[in-house]
C-alpha cells in the first residue's frame, strides 16, 4: 500500500528525493500538480531554462515540462524507475529516477553527460555572465569565451569589435542602452583574458 502524503525535498541541487512528510502544504494549495516531484534551473548561454518533472508513483505517469511547455507525457508505465531523455537545444539531458528505499525515489538531472552541478561549474569557466538592471528591463548578458558570441535574455546580439590601446572592446546595445565588453590580458597564462562589462561607464560585477 502506498503511504502519503509525499513531497519532493532537495538534498542536492541536481537530485531530489521523494519522502513521506506529515506537515506540508499540498501541491493543490500551491497551485501545482500533486505529482510534481522535481524542478531544476539549468543555465545555458541563451538563458536559464526551467525543467519540471511529474511522477505518478502509482501509475508510473511521467510528465516533463521545459520552460513551462510540456514536451513528454506518458500516462502509464509499469516500470517506475529509469531514464527520461530530452534535449535543451542540442544538449542532451536525462531525468534519472532511482529507488531510494521503501516508497521513496531519487530524481537527478544529467546535462551533457554531467551532473547539473558539474555542468554549471564548467559553464562558469567557459562563459562570463552578468545581470544588468536597467529602467526598461533586467538583462542576463552571457559572453561565450570560445566563440565570443554575446547573448542577452535568450537572444544573440549583434556586436562590433575594435582594438584599443590596452585590449579590445566589443560594443552592442541592451534595449536602447549602449554597452560594451572589454577584454584585457591578465599577464597570467592560466587565467587568460579578463572580460569586463561596462554600462553607463560603470563596470558590472560578474554573476558567476
UniProtKB/TrEMBL annotation:
Gene3D superfamilies for the chain: 2.40.128.180
A Pfam family that the UniProt record links to this protein: FAIM1
InterPro entries in the cross-refs: FAIM1 (IPR010695), FAIM1_dom_sf (IPR038513)
GO biological process: negative regulation of extrinsic apoptotic signaling pathway via death domain receptors
Bilayer-spanning residue ranges: none
The protein, known as: Fas apoptotic inhibitory molecule 1
Organism of derivation: Laodelphax striatellus
Amino acid at each position: 500500500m502506498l503511504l502519503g502524503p509525499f513531497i519532493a525535498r532537495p538534498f542536492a541541487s541536481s537530485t531530489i528525493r521523494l519522502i513521506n512528510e506529515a506537515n506540508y502544504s499540498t501541491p493543490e494549495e500551491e497551485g501545482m500538480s500533486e505529482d510534481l516531484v522535481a524542478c531544476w534551473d539549468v543555465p545555458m548561454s541563451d538563458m536559464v531554462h526551467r525543467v519540471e518533472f511529474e511522477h505518478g508513483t502509482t501509475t508510473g505517469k511521467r510528465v516533463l515540462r521545459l520552460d513551462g511547455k510540456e514536451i513528454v507525457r506518458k500516462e502509464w508505465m509499469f516500470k517506475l524507475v529509469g531514464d527520461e531523455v530530452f534535449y535543451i537545444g542540442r544538449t542532451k539531458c536525462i531525468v534519472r529516477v532511482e529507488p531510494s528505499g521503501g516508497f521513496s525515489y531519487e530524481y537527478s538531472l544529467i546535462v551533457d553527460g554531467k551532473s547539473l552541478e558539474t555542468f554549471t561549474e564548467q559553464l562558469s569557466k567557459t562563459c562570463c555572465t552578468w545581470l544588468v538592471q536597467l529602467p526598461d528591463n533586467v538583462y542576463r548578458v552571457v559572453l561565450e569565451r570560445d566563440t565570443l558570441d554575446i547573448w542577452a535574455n535568450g537572444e544573440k546580439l549583434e556586436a562590433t569589435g575594435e582594438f584599443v590601446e590596452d585590449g579590445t572592446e566589443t560594443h552592442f546595445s541592451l534595449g536602447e542602452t549602449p554597452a560594451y565588453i572589454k577584454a584585457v590580458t591578465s599577464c597570467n597564462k592560466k587565467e587568460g583574458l579578463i572580460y569586463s562589462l561596462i554600462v553607463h561607464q560603470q563596470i558590472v560585477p560578474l554573476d558567476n
